[in-house]
């Protein structure tokens, strides 16, 4: 979930979460579907929306989770265009952006290489390697329910979904085995992402630089 800037500034800390509804979630996904090809052009492999917006349960405290696969690293010009678009999109829909993780933009080479880690990974409750964290997050984003699919190589996306789609259920079983036995019962019927968020520790990322560069969008 993103940082709640305006809501905290204007006394909205007591604001209750309000579901966006399927119609608005669909509209957001369609806007991402149209926006990514414009920003990335021929460099785009595929892209999509995931998380709460894609699954239709997002509320006004959710950020918009996007995933973009490209052939080569973004140029400075494309990077600025992407971040400006990302934060403007959140402002348009009055949603809190995630300055720490403003969507995922990854090259196809790195995505393929990092996902290979999962084939030999045995989970622990403390993840120290950034690539291991990314492998888990990316596989979950790709296989956990998506919308707004776009890009010329959706066949690559389909192949990844098929190859790694079984991992989320496996992760939940592994995490349950790692937590205290007396706590397992209350988590058995909970989706794997919430179980992993509760018990697993990951390397952190500091989004203060992006907040400094693009936070002005929310102070107009």
Task: Set down the secondary structure blueprint.
Layout: H1 5-9, H2 22-40, E1 44-50, H3 51-55, E2 65-70, H4 76-92, E3 104-107, H5 108-115, H6 130-143, E4 147-150, H7 154-164, H8 167-178, H9 181-184, H10 192-199, H11 208-214
Parallel strand pairs: 2-3
Antiparallel strand pairs: 1-2, 1-4
Helix pairs in contact: 2-4, 8-10
How would you sum up this structure, described in words?
With 220 residues, the chain is of the alpha+beta class. It has one domain: Beta Polymerase, domain 2, CATH 3.30.460. The protein contains eleven helices and four strands, in the order H-H-E-H-E-H-E-H-H-E-H-H-H-H-H. The chain has a four-stranded mixed sheet, sandwiched between helices. The protein starts with a helix and ends in a 6-residue tail after the last helix.
Order of helices and strands: HHEHEHEHHEHHHHH
Number of domains: 1
Helical content class: 40-55%
Low-confidence stretches: 1-11
CATH class equals Alpha Beta
Strand order of the largest sheet: 3-2-1-4
Assign the structural class, choosing from mainly alpha, mainly beta, alpha/beta, alpha+beta, or little secondary structure: alpha+beta
Q: What is the CA-based Rg, rounded?
A: 18 Å
- Mean pLDDT value: 92
Q: Tell me the name of the CATH homologous superfamily.
A: Beta Polymerase, domain 2
Total DSSP helices: 11
The fraction of residues in strands falls at 5-15%
Q: Outline, from the CA principal axes?
A: globular
Q: How many strand elements?
A: 4
Main sheet summary? 4 strands, mixed
| Annotated CATH architecture | 2-Layer Sandwich
Return the CATH topology.
Beta Polymerase, domain 2
Distance between the termini: 22 Å
């Amino acid at each position: 979930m993103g940082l709640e800037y305006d809501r905290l500034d204007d006394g909205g800390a007591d604001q209750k979460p309000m579901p966006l509804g399927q119609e608005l979630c669909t509209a957001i996904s369609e806007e991402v579907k149209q926006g990514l090809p414009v920003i990335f052009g021929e460099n785009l492999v595929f892209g999509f929306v995931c998380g709460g917006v894609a699954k239709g349960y997002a509320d006004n405290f959710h950020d918009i989770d996007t995933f973009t696969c490209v052939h080569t690293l973004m140029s400075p010009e494309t990077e600025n265009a992407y971040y400006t678009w990302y934060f403007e999109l959140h402002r348009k829909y009055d949603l809190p952006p995630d300055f720490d993780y403003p969507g995922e933009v990854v090259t196809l080479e790195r995505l393929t290489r990092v996902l290979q880690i999962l084939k030999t990974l045995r989970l622990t409750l403390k993840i120290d390697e950034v690539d291991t964290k990314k492998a888990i997050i990316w596989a979950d984003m790709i296989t956990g329910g998506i919308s707004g699919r776009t890009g010329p190589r959706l066949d690559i996306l389909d192949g990844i979904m098929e190859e790694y789609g079984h991992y989320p259920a496996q992760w939940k079983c592994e995490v349950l085995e790692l937590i205290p036995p007396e706590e397992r019962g209350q988590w058995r019927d909970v989706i794997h992402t919430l179980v992993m968020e509760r018990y697993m520790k990951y390397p952190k990322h500091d989004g203060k630089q992006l907040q400094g560069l693009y936070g002005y969008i929310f102070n107009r």
